[in-house]
Write a structure and sequence with these properties.
Helices cover 30% and strands 30% of the residues of chain A. With 228 residues, chain A is of the alpha/beta class. In chain A, strands 6-7-8-3-9-10 form a six-stranded mixed sheet, sandwiched between helices. Chain A has a four-stranded antiparallel sheet with strand order 2-1-4-5, covered by helices on one side. In chain A, helix 5 runs parallel beside helix 6. In chain B, the strands form two sheets. In chain B, strands 10-5-2-11-1-12 form a six-stranded mixed sheet. In chain B, strands 3, 4, 6, 7, 8 and 9 form a six-stranded mixed sheet that branches. In chain B, a hairpin with a 2-residue loop joins strand 8 and strand 9. The chains are: A alpha/beta (228), B alpha+beta (401).
């Protein structure tokens, strides 16, 4: 079953005098446990596509289904926020960790916006950090960690609410090649464990870690192909 | 909510100096209000204590008209209160004849210092009838005896005058000067119970027989106050009304005031209310400036933490959650300011208590006022920055450099 299903998705930014079409007629299906790289040059629309899949932005046309749920264009901001919290884990290029808080507090942050699943949240966060090799970093602040470690904290944060989809926007962009490879290995492992992983990148080496790559150019998907 | 509070403290602690400077206005505003309220409360307690010392069945008449209704009205001529030309012996006689009145003591004011050789005391000397201590109730003899007639060159020293003129030595039988005349000390008063800023006025009163005072006042009565003691079972208000009507008949006009202890308390309340209103007006300027400071720093904080806001929204924070987070932060920062202001005024109150006869009172009322003000300031001035934070677009916010 497709965890992500986009049908004829289009997005046009409108200002007073200008209409800028960014995406048109995008169709994309991603199965559970699949990992997909979305590649394209800057301005191709890949960030917009990621924002739409991540429910941060609304398409101006088309249909979107996430985890079997039809996402209506008229959903309220709070409904979208609740769906993000439940279904999606974000990983960013610049980590976006809270500098003054410990690794543990950073991982726990998304749980404060959920009504359920708070009971054993500290245990879950510690286990995630441990599984990602950050056992000794639990009470460290981001400033005391390397880039690779920070991105692993961010991945733990993305996983704390046990989402179906991991959306990673240039996750290796600020890392050296060794840490970058480590991060991609972790994402690959997560996909094998059943998570659906979407990676936005312009680096073909990063895309190689994924099951398939989707190329986007001028707001249209060019071709889809399987690696391996 | 707990997460909001934790995050607010982390943010405040992360910018210690900035936070402290921000809340300075709130600290000053809150401490000025609380210092005044606690001083006022203390004074009010003192007045109440003195009144308790008098007993509620004492009232007095003074020259001049004081408006005891809270509406204000015609201003009194201050000279009438002390001139001693309004009240007469005839008034004393007619009050004595009224129902429910047990004791009546006219009191006259005598000018001039008390002298014992080279030692002087500037404490007040009153001419009075022998029953004055029974009427007033608040003062008691510490040693010796009270004079028994309205004549004679005898004096009962106040505790202040005794200390000034004789120190710890026994003054009984000694001769002293009042103005130009010689008097023999036959007794002295002990410090009044519930000694405080208000009752210490009474601790400086020395008494001489009424007619001896009349001689010192060049043959004039100069009645300054008439103290009236009512029987315990009679209604003080009814006696007050009787006295009022009698004196109005005697004088043909209302150029005097009859005051019960409750009237004094309400006069004091009026004065205190006015003083509190004035200082509160000044303090509210400080609180306004403090509030604007809070708003300014919250706007800076929201702008600095744009990416954090974007991130929080991405992981599921609603507008309401972001609003709550930043509003909580503004409220906590002002509450911390309020608590610091309270601590400061508590310290000031302690200093005042040890160095002056005032007894500032730190009641729950004061604490509630301080924290209530902080809460209101935090909410009013924190809401706009918090709304700005809540309305940020998550995509823009995440892209913010």
């Amino acid at each position: 079953m497709a965890v992500i299903a986009l049908h004829d998705i289009g997005k046009t930014y409108k200002s007073e005098s200008l209409e800028v079409p960014v995406l048109h007629g995008v169709d994309l299906k991603v199965e559970a446990g699949e990992s997909v790289a979305i590649m394209g040059p800057s301005g191709s629309g890949k960030s917009t596509l990621m924002n739409i899949i991540g429910l941060l932005d609304r398409p101006t046309q088309g249909e979107l289904e996430l985890g079997g749920e039809n996402i209506s264009l008229s959903m309220s901001d709070s409904k979208l926020a609740a769906l993000r919290s439940e279904k999606i884990g974000f990983v960013f290029q610049s980590f976006n960790l809270l500098a003054r808080q410990t690794a543990l507090a950073n991982v726990l942050m998304p749980t404060s916006y959920r009504k359920d699943g708070r009971g054993d949240r500290i245990e879950r966060a510690k286990k995630l950090l441990k599984d990602l090799g950050l056992e000794k970093r639990i009470l460290h602040k981001p400033t005391e960690m390397s880039g690779g470690e920070r991105q692993r904290v961010a991945i733990a944060r993305a996983l704390i609410n046990d989402p179906e989809i991991i959306l990673a926007d240039e996750p290796t962009g600020n890392l050296d090649s060794k840490s970058g490879k480590e991060v991609m290995d972790i994402l690959a492992k997560l996909s094998k464990a059943g998570k659906t992983v979407i990676v936005i990148t312009h680096d073909p080496k990063v895309a190689e870690h994924c099951d398939r790559t989707v190329h986007i150019f001028d707001g249209t998907i060019q071709k889809g192909g399987h690696h391996d | 909510m707990i997460d909001h509070i934790k995050s607010a403290f982390a943010s405040i602690w992360g910018n210690k100096l900035r936070s402290l400077l921000t809340v300075l206005g709130v600290i000053i505003g809150v401490s000025s209000v609380t210092i005044l309220v606690s001083l006022g409360q203390g004074l009010k307690n003192d007045v109440a204590n003195v009144i308790e010392g008098f007993g509620t069945n004492v009232l007095f008449v003074t020259g001049g008209k004081i408006d005891t209704s809270s509406k204000g009205g015609q201003a009194a001529n201050p000279a009438d209160f002390i001139s001693g030309d309004v009240l007469t012996q005839a008034d004393v006689g007619s009050i004595r004849a009224l129902n429910g009145v047990t004791l009546v003591s006219p009191v006259s004011l005598v000018g001039g210092n008390l002298k014992n050789g080279t030692k002087t005391s500037s404490s007040s000397v009153l001419g009075a009838t022998p029953d004055v201590l029974d009427t007033l109730q608040i003062l008691t003899l510490g040693g010796g005896k009270m004079f028994t007639s309205n004549d004679g060159q005898e004096i009962v020293l106040s505790s202040v005058a005794k200390q000034d003129l004789f120190g710890d030595a026994n003054p009984i039988g000694q001769n002293i000067q009042v103005g130009t005349q010689g008097f023999t000390v036959i007794g002295y008063l002990s410090k009044s119970k519930n000694s405080n800023a208000i009752s210490s006025e009474y601790d400086s009163l020395s008494f001489i027989p009424f007619n001896a005072a009349k001689i010192l006042n060049k043959g004039q009565d100069k009645i300054y106050r008439i103290f009236i003691h009512t029987s315990t079972e009679s209604d003080v208000k009814a006696v007050k009304q009787e006295v009022f009507e009698q004196l109005k008949k005697n004088h043909g006009q209302e150029d005097f005031t009859v005051l019960t202890q409750d009237d004094i308390l309400s006069l004091f309340d009026q004065f205190l209310g006015l003083a509190t209103a004035m200082v509160s007006a000044i303090a509210s300027i400080s609180l306004l400036v403090g509030g604007i400071g809070i708003m300014n720093i919250m706007l800076v904080t929201v702008s600095e933490r744009t990416r954090e806001i974007g991130l929080r929204k991405a992981v599921g924070a609603t507008q309401g959650a972001i609003l709550g987070q930043f509003l909580t932060e503004a409220i906590i920062i002002t509450l911390v300011g309020g608590l610091l202001g309270l601590a400061f005024s508590y310290a000031v109150a302690a200093i005042v208590r040890y160095n002056t006869p005032l007894h500032p009172s730190f009641s729950w009322e004061v604490i509630t006022i301080a924290l209530g003000i902080s809460l209101v300031i935090g909410t009013v001035f924190g809401i706009w920055p918090a709304l700005r934070a809540a309305r940020k677009d998550p995509i823009e916010a995440l892209r913010y450099e």
